[in-house]
């Protein structure tokens, strides 16, 4: 056998071709008579026997570089291919025209707006197939499929919506011009188009992650009997370059483990990312096949279009398959960036037998050899197989061309992603390529095209969408159901003072509140507790037995702690979602529940409690996506503050999560100190999100530090919600100061009040500030109103109103960076000194009192700050400040904690 023959057959030489053929004939007979499942079983048995006999037969997750579904097994396409191609061409034109128009502005008009044409150009056939045959909108007969559109493909979705009459020409003309309220956002944004887009899929990587947990949440709702989701699918379109994002592949094992056969990934393998090839020296489809197949997914490779079928059928010796396998993506990219002659020379020219195979084909015919993602027959076959897969999630690896149809300026070119302008010749070529009824005279104006209402195309389009429940995408902005929130006094156990000698933490207060809510007849079943493997840390292990941990297959083992009251109990209809050490996954689960009012017409109430040190710094991009999706639910940052998690240290102590949460406009943030504050805030949050269906979500920090709870006093609830209230006062001092605090450091402020009176005869008011963030937001609203209404009576911010009726300088101390309390400085009463203490710097591991001393936020520093403020106001002698430094043993030479 020649060297070339050996190479064709693989790594080893076939020493007995007759025996090989007998085995192959046997396998073919089994496939023909008993089907692929029986054949798979027999192959598994043979492999197992060989391994047990000592032969090393490694498993390969890779298959040949050809389509998974052979031509003979493709179902008949049910549509009118010519009609669908015409509609698809019109949408391509509208998408292109929209982006090019948006970038015709002169630099003096504000410069380029950007936009992307190439991604949709590669996806158009697949989007069209989904729209015509697969994607159900929510209707009486169907809960609706959920589609995560590839973010950069939005122009194509808009182009179709224009033809459907859902978007106006004016809106298309204002693509990426959103400030006036008429424009269309660059990417899918539910916040900006609340009745259109369901999911934000940019930043890249978040779509795949969120979609997996969305599919799991549909199963969860069904298992718990809250909604019938058995016929719904979650479709996820993402790019091959996007799969480099860690989030894209981070949860694929969960999808296989929980058998999410309602989940379909479609990875648009156009082989290019922003700067160049995704894998120039490799094969991204093969790589992704290994990742997904190895994780337990059903993998459908959609590589070659139908024009390749005759060539593959003639490839009896496997020469074509071999060259297909050995050609790297950088070469494939070059093939579609050039022409048929180039393909003949550089692809088929790799073997003289291949050149002979295509010798009777013209260069034009070679150029017509299409990729699978652009073949409507192949796409339909892949979608149909994916939709009917049982017991596994499915990924379709669809090979396409970046910038398909955009000619030499973009098709298959490295800069295709950034391409947003086309010259007149390129426009003419595009028009001719897709037979768009636009004249040469009209080309410069780039008119959008919509067929006449009574045209066959419009009738076809509407008929197919009516069968699928209506136009898509479509978002439900409110749930139909009306739920009533329990009154505040229902949570009496959390509102009352603790008995003498008894102490609890605000974390325990939250758990008590949650337990009471779980007992509510209407809302109890809608509660979704979510944990990232910290149940025992937060005292929530009692929920294991009470409501069970969701596990689709139930509990197949006897837990080691079964003899304990709070044993680990998994259940097929469990209520608690235990996500393991996985904050991103838990947050994605929370988003699925927090948007259930929209995606499922079922209001759910998710509570995700986690270490605040793993808070917004770890899941910040998802937190912004949650805001965009109009999420409603509670995020609880446990053991919060820089000095509260006393045993962890450097990176693990949170002094900044409230700074980060404050940047998200619809995230309502609180840092309560006492149990009654937690109860008031959460009950009010429930009313806003559940009863009033307001599009906000809550971030509340909690502490594991135990102390006595004073209970709710009459009249304080309003201030708790607004952000501050007067907790207690001392009187009769020579001077008076205002002391503000939040979270665990408020207790240091209370101790400082005692020291000021006892050691310095200075009286004070202590203010519990539950939210510096909400105080600032209200102050900014008032400031803006006054700016825009100069002739009206000026409004006064709430914080200014409260402090204006008091005397003396103001000191604030928190367990967060100084910036946290400093954000309300502009709203201090005029002429009043305001000093802020905070925990800037890296964390440390030590006892809490030592940490508070280190960060200079403890009672002694509060006293010192108050004395310094009085001295600056010249109401006491500055020697009192030096005297306090000596009295409390404050080391003036120690390093600034910010630099320590």
UniProtKB/TrEMBL annotation:
Where along this sequence does the record place binding of Mg(2+)?
240, 270, 272
Record-linked Pfam families: PDH_E1_M, Transketolase_C_1, Transketolase_N
EC number annotated for this UniProt entry: 1.2.4.1
User: Which keywords does this Swiss-Prot/TrEMBL entry list?
Assistant: Magnesium, Metal-binding, Oxidoreductase, Pyruvate, Thiamine pyrophosphate
Domain Pyruvate dehydrogenase E1 component middle spans what residues?
Answer: 494-710
Q: Does the keyword Oxidoreductase apply?
A: yes
Give a yes or no for keyword Lyase in this entry: no
Q: Which InterPro entries match?
A: PDC_E1_N (IPR035807), PDH/Transketolase (IPR051157), PDH_E1 (IPR004660), PDH_E1_M (IPR041621), THDP-binding (IPR029061), Transketo_C/PFOR_II (IPR009014), Transketolase-like_C_2 (IPR055152), Transketolase_N (IPR005474)
Task: Show the NCBIfam families listed in the entry.
Answer: aceE (TIGR00759)
Q: Which PANTHER family match?
A: PYRUVATE DEHYDROGENASE E1 COMPONENT (PTHR43825)
Name used for this protein in its record: Pyruvate dehydrogenase E1 component
Q: Which gene encodes it?
A: aceE
């Amino acid at each position: 056998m020649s060297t070339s023959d050996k190479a064709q057959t693989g790594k080893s030489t076939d020493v007995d071709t007759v025996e090989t053929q007998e085995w192959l004939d046997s396998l073919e007979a089994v496939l023909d008579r008993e089907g692929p499942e029986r054949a798979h079983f027999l192959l598994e048995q043979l492999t197992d026997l060989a391994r047990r006999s000592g032969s090393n037969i490694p498993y390969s997750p890779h298959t040949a570089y050809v389509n998974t579904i052979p031509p003979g097994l493709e179902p008949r396409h049910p549509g009118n291919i010519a009609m669908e191609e015409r509609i698809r061409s019109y949408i391509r034109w509208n998408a292109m025209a929209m982006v090019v128009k948006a970038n015709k502005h002169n630099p003096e008009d504000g410069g380029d707006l950007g936009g992307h044409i190439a991604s949709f150009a590669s996806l158009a056939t697949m989007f069209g197939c989904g729209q015509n045959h697969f994607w159900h909108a929510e209707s009486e007969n169907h809960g609706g499929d959920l589609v995560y559109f590839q973010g950069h493909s939005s122009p194509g979705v808009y182009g179709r919506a224009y033809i459907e009459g859902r978007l106006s020409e004016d809106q298309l003309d204002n693509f990426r011009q959103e400030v006036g309220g008429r424009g269309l956002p660059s990417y899918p944004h539910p916040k900006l188009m609340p009745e259109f887009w369901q999911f934000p899929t940019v930043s890249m990587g978040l779509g795949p992650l969120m979609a997996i947990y969305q599919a799991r949440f549909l199963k969860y709702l069904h298992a718990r009997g809250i909604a019938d989701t058995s016929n719904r699918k979650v479709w996820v379109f993402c790019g091959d370059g996007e799969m480099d994002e860690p989030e894209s592949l981070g949860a694929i094992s969960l999808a296989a483990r929980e058998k999410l056969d309602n989940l379909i990934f479609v990875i648009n393998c156009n082989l290019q990312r922003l700067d160049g090839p995704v894998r120039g020296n490799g094969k991204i489809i093969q790589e992704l096949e290994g990742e997904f197949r190895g994780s337990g997914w059903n993998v459908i490779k959609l590589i070659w279009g139908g024009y390749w079928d005759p060539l593959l059928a003639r490839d009896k010796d496997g020469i074509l398959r071999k060259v297909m396998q050995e050609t790297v993506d950088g070469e494939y990219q070059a093939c579609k960036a050039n022409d048929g002659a180039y393909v003949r020379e550089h692809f088929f020219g790799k073997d003289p037998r291949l050149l002979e195979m295509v010798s009777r084909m013209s260069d034009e015919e070679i150029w017509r050899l299409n990729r699978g993602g652009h073949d409507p027959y192949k796409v339909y076959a892949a979608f149909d197989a994916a939709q009917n897969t049982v017991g596994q999630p499915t990924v379709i690896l669809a090979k396409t061309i970046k910038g398909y149809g955009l000619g030499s300026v973009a098709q298959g070119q490295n800069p295709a992603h950034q391409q947003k302008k086309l010259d007149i010749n390129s426009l003419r070529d595009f028009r001719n390529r897709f037979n768009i009824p636009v004249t040469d005279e009209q080309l410069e104006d780039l008119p959008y095209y919509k067929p006449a209402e009574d045209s066959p195309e419009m009738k076809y389009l509407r008929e197919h969408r009516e069968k699928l429940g209506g136009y898509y995408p479509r978002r439900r902005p409110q749930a139909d159901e009306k739920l009533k929130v329990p009154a505040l006094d229902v949570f009496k156990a959390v509102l009352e003072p603790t008995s003498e000698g008894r102490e609890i933490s605000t974390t325990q207060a939250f758990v008590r509140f949650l337990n009471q809510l779980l007992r509510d007849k209407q809302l109890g079943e809608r509660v979704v507790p979510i944990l990232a493997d910290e149940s025992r840390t937060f005292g929530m292990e009692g929920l294991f037995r009470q409501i069970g941990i969701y596990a689709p297959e139930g509990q197949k083992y006897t837990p080691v702690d079964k003899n304990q009251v709070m044993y680990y109990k998994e259940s097929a209809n469990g209520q608690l979602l235990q996500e393991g050490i996985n904050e991103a996954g838990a947050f994605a689960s929370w988003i699925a529940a927090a948007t259930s009012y929209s995606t499922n017409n079922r209001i759910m109430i998710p509570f995700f409690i986690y270490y605040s040190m793993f808070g917004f710094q770890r899941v910040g991009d998802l937190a912004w996506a949650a805001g965009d999706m109009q999420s409603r639910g509670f995020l609880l940052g446990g053991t919060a503050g820089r000095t509260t998690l006393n045993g962890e240290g450097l990176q693990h102590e949170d002094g900044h999560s409230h700074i980060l949460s404050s940047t998200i406009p619809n995230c309502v943030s609180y840092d309560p100190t006492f149990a009654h504050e937690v109860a008031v805030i959460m009950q009010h949050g429930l009313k806003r999100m559940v009863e009033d269906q307001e599009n906000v979500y809550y971030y509340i920090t909690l502490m594991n530090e135990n102390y006595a709870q004073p209970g709710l006093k009459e009249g304080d609830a309003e201030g708790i919600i607004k952000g501050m209230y007067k907790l207690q006062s001392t009187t009769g001092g020579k001077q008076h100061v205002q002391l503000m605090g939040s979270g665990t450091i408020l207790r240091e402020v209370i101790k400082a009040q005692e020291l000021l009176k006892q050691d310095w005869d200075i009286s004070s008011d202590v203010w519990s500030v539950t939210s510096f963030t909400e105080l600032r937001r209200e102050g900014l609203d008032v400031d803006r109103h006054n700016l825009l209404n100069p002739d009206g009576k000026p409004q006064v911010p709430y914080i200014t109103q409260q402090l204006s009726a008091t005397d003396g300088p103001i000191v604030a101390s928190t367990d967060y960076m100084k910036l946290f309390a400093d954000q309300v400085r502009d709203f201090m009463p005029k002429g009043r000194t305001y000093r802020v203490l905070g925990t800037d710097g890296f964390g440390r591991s030590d006892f809490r009192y030592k940490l508070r001393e280190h960060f200079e936020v403890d009672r002694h520093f509060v006293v010192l700050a108050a004395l310094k403020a009085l001295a600056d106001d010249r109401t006491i002698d500055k020697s009192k400040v030096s005297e306090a430094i000596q009295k409390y043993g404050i080391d003036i030479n120690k390093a600034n904690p910010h630099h320590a």
